[in-house]
Amino acid sequence: MKKLRQVNIPLKDMPHQWYNILPDLPVPLPPPKDPDEGPSRLASLPKLMIGECLKQEASQERWIDIPEELIDIYAQAGRPRPLFRALNLEKKLDTPARLYYKSEFFSPTGSHKANTALAQCYYAKKQGFERVTTETGAGQWGTALAYGSAVVGLKCTVFWVRSVYNWKQDRRRFMELLGAEVFASPSPKTESGKKIWEKNHEHVGSLGIAISEGLEDSMRDPKAVYCLGSVLNHVLMHQTIIGLETQKQFKIFDDYPDIVISCFGGGSNFGGFALPFVGDVLTKGKKIKFIAAQSEVAKNLQGEYRFNFADYAEYTPLLKMYTLGHKIEMKPIWGDGLRYHGASPIISLLRDKGYINTIAYPADERYVFEKAQLFTQVEGWLPAPESAYSVACAIDEALKCKESGEKKVIAFNISGHGFLDMPGYEKVLGLK
Ligand SMILES: Cc1ncc(COP(=O)(O)O)c(C=O)c1O
User: Which of the listed residues 101, 111, 236, 334 should we mutate to test ligand 1's pocket, taking the one with most ligand atoms within 8 A of CB?
Assistant: First the structure.
């Protein structure tokens, strides 16, 4: 029989609820807490966060309804997105494994980040805010929030890690075209940014610093609210639409994954893709190996499991997470969306309990870009630099199957496209 290359589901079958894994976790998630010294960060959360998102953050409801208006907005943004069988790649690798990839690169802004950006902007507008503020690393989250703001009618301010701001000029123009104002971080616009910027105007920045700037900017303006694109429970929950669609699509393929892979910075695309399958492991006795693909420069899942701040200037409460420490300096990489000091508390707990494996790829990124190039040559889709880590890890696992002769089913998420990331490919692969 002819093998299916691609499966999608009709709009009416798009999930109408997000999956909240909190009630299914093997032990309760340690709640955020205040540090021993200084003002209470927990007390300031209702001022810092969108009310509905704060409620979702600690909800024990397994299924949370996606508002009908938001379903409409998701549809306009091109959901559901297809699940592909990588038949060409299987052939090229000569592997007995069956490879499947989810296509978050079909997003209007280029990545999965739109799934939570649209939700957060929708709730912010409903609550009466006029502006959203945020940080961005790769620029994908900043663009997604700029897009969400434009769609629902909000202003948007983005603090962008300088090392990336400097080279992704087209993406900066895209955010501006959507109506956002964009600053290189650390910037002189905020007290926390200024302290670092004054010592070094060309400081490369970090997500931790940019988060502090976004938070500070929103704290000064009662009409503004801060939005985060990763790490937090509600962000991962909004992203579960990826994995929930994938489960329906696997049913149509009449298959089921043995290995689930995605790249990992703070955990939003990995969590969104993997958590519905983790739910199957926790509640239905399924056996799946989960692998989070990271960079050597930011292998937070190999750090310490402890309470730590989520930002550089210590405005956030302490979260229990795998961390490299919130003041750590990490070398810039082309896949800069993976350069964050801490891992999502949910994924951290699951890793601590032995459910999540991880691999860190070399800092020069040649290995992952070569694998992404191979993928593009046979499958035709150009992965974002971050997604190149998912591709590399999936290829590694497929080659292990070639050695062992095992017919494993490998599912990976391509979190974004690389159309605005060509300088990274050019430099790493030496394209002329
Ligand atoms: C395309 C893409 N994939 C993955 C990531 C990593 O973030 P997360 O770990 O939250 O999925 C980013 C972050 O900017 C990104 O832009």
Answer: 111
Q: Would the pTM count as exceeding 0.90?
A: yes
The alpha carbon of 255 is separated from its chain's Cα centroid by a whole number of angstroms, namely: 26
Distance between CA 26 and CA 354 in Å, rounded? 11
- Residues at CB less than 6 angstroms from ligand 1: 111, 137-138, 140-141, 230, 263-270, 337-338, 384, 386-387, 415-416
| Mean of pLDDT values over 25-34 | 98
Question: 21 phi and psi, to 5 degrees?
Answer: -80, -10
Contact 246, 83 (CB under 8 A): yes
Mind listing the domains of the chain with CATH numbers? 6-15+71-111+239-429 (3.40.50.1100), 21-36+43-65+113-226 (3.40.50.1100)
Q: Is the CB of residue 345 less than 8 Å from the CB of residue 317?
A: no
Q: Is 37 left (phi over 0), alpha (psi -120 to 50) or beta?
A: beta
pLDDT digits (tens, 9 = 90+) for 264-294: 999 999 999 999 999 999 999 999 999 999 9
Residue 342 to residues 80, 112, 304, 328, Cα–Cα distance (Å) = 30, 20, 9, 10
